Each structure stands twice: as C-alpha cells, then as structure tokens.
C-alpha cells in the first residue's frame, strides 16, 4: 500500500550532498517535512532551504552515538515525531587491501556499518512511537563482492544483514524496515572514486551494464517510492534483481571476472602511487571532522 507522504517527518543522514540531498528534495516535493543530518552545516542549511516546508538541519557524525542521538532528539523536539528514517550516510575508498590507506579503509566500515547501527539505535524509539519506517541505503556492492572495494562491500553487506535483523525485531511493534540497493549513481562520491586510477580500472573493467553510471533523478524517485510503499527491497536499476536472485554463485564467479582487474589496479597504483583516501567532498568532510578542522 502506497502512503501519502504529506506531513510525514523524514530524517535523512548524509543529507548535505549527493543521494541524500537529492532524495530530501524529492520527498519535500511530495509534501514531506525534512530533517537533514550531516557533517557540513552550510551545505545542510542550503539543502534545507531548497527543500522548504520548514525543513531543518542538524550537524552530527553518525559514528558518534551521543551526537546522532542528540540529533534524533532534536528532530523529535522540533517536529513532534519521526515517521521515516533514511540511513544514507556513507563514505568510500578504492584500493586493494594491500595498497589501500588503512585509516580510510577502516573508516568506510566505521561510517557505513557502525554509523548505520548507531543511527538506527538513535531513531528507533521514535519510529516505534509513530509506527514508522526505516530505510537502509545499502548498495549493489552487497550483492557482488568486487575487487578494490573490499571495505565498501563489507560495510554494505553488513548494513543489509543488520537491517534484515532489525526488521524481524520490530515487526511486532508496527515498524517497517526496507533496504535499497543502488548501483553507480552520478554523485560526488562516485565521481571522486574515478580520481584514483586503481579504482577506475576496477570499475570500468566490469562487464556492461555493471560499469555504467546512472543518473540521480530516477534513483531518488525509486527511493521515494520505496518510502511511500514501505518497500522491503528496492533495486536500482531494476535489473539488479537478477544479481539478487543469483547472488549465491557470485563469490565463486567474481574472482575470475575481476581478479585480472585487481592486478591491473595494483600495477597502475605502483606506477602512480597516491594515498587512496576517502572519495569526494563528503569524504573530505569526514576527514576534516576527524582532524578537528
């Protein structure tokens, strides 16, 4: 059943840029009231103004339980309720385990997995009160383990399993839980990945259409539809259902498909060594937050 989103209070993490910001604007256009959470106060405020309809912004690091819990309490105080949580905050880096920057590699898991857990923990009491909906943004990376993306694949597989577990825990409380699996969406994070030759080789060497970059607008429409319908699984693009249905064989097949890409990626990195840090402006914001800038 599709629900009218008019007046629904939606809390989105990672809302300063990219998919989170675009989804906020899409949901605002459908009448929702937006609570935007992220690391960049100026960008968040600009997005809140773009959303209109009384949208507000909170600055919080999702890996900081006290900060994200305070943000959730602030949203409840400002709007009176939280009807929908979209756990979208995420970062990425490229590089095989041998060549990746250890700090950035580990940070991907901290933000994407532990950040989602802490976000859900903060918002869940409010979702129980409203019998609301929690949408976890995972990735096609949860379906196919890819070379040069070990930490990202691990983090997205982790949030998928986590959200499935939470669904079982809160179903009797009237809370719905869904998982979204976007592929390569044309955001700053994905474009930032292409700054690293090692990652570019691994991504663009994938078979078509797995190497294709998809536009933001249809992706956020699919996510907004998922919120309205409280959909359990959302694939974008829709052909990912094929990978979902055949994921049992993926770990056995992918080494033969992408193993050669890992060798090429490491060779490219050796020829032009560069610290493989977090990608895009969002990654830079996370780096700045941890360094205290």
UniProtKB/TrEMBL annotation:
SMART domains in UniProt = PKS_KR
Q: Where is this region: Disordered?
A: 272-293
Q: Name one Pfam family in it.
A: adh_short
Annotated keywords? Oxidoreductase
Residue ranges constituting the Ketoreductase domain according to the UniProt record: 8-187
- InterPro entries the UniProt entry points to: KR_dom, NAD(P)-bd_dom_sf, Sc_DH/Rdtase_CS, SDR_fam
* SUPFAM superfamilies in alphabetical order: NAD(P)-binding Rossmann-fold domains
Cited NCBIfam families: PRK05872.1
Q: Give the family, as the similarity comment puts it.
A: Belongs to the short-chain dehydrogenases/reductases (SDR) family.
Looking up PANTHER family in the UniProt record yields: DEHYDROGENASE/REDUCTASE SDR FAMILY MEMBER 7B (PTHR44196), DEHYDROGENASE_REDUCTASE SDR FAMILY MEMBER 7B (PTHR44196:SF1)
Query: What is the name listed in the Swiss-Prot or TrEMBL entry for this protein?
Result: Short-chain dehydrogenase/reductase
Q: Which organism is it from?
A: Spongisporangium articulatum
């Amino acid at each position: 059943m599709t629900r009218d989103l008019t007046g629904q209070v939606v809390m989105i993490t990672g809302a300063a840029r990219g998919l989170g910001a675009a989804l906020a604007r899409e949901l605002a256009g459908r009448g929702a009231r937006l609570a935007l959470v992220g690391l960049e106060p100026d960008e968040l405020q600009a997005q809140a103004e773009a959303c209109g309809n009384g949208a507000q912004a909170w600055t919080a690091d999702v890996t900081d339980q006290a900060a994200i819990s305070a943000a959730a309490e602030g949203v409840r105080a400002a709007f009176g309720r939280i009807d929908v949580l979209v756990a979208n905050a995420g970062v990425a880096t490229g590089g095989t385990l041998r060549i990746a920057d250890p700090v950035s590699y580990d940070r991907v898991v901290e933000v994407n997995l532990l950040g989602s857990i802490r976000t859900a923990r903060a918002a869940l009491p409010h979702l129980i009160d409203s019998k609301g909906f929690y949408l976890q943004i995972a990735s096609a990376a949860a379906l196919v383990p890819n070379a040069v993306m070990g930490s990202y694949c691990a983090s997205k597989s982790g949030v998928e399993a986590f959200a499935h577990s939470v669904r079982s825990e809160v179903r009797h409380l009237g809370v719905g839980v869904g998982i979204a699996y976007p592929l390569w969406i044309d955001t700053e994070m994905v474009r930032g990945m292409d700054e690293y030759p090692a990652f570019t080789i691994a991504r663009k060497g994938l078979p078509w259409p797995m190497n294709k970059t998809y536009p933001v607008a249809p992706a956020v429409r699919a996510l907004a539809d998922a919120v309205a319908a409280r959909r359990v699984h959302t694939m974008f693009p829709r052909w990912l259902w094929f990978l979902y249905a055949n994921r049992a064989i993926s770990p056995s097949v992918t080494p033969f498909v992408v193993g050669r890409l890992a060798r090429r990626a490491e060779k490219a990195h050796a020829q032009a060594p560069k610290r493989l840090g977090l990608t895009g402006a969002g990654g830079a914001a996370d780096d700045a937050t941890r360094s205290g800038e």
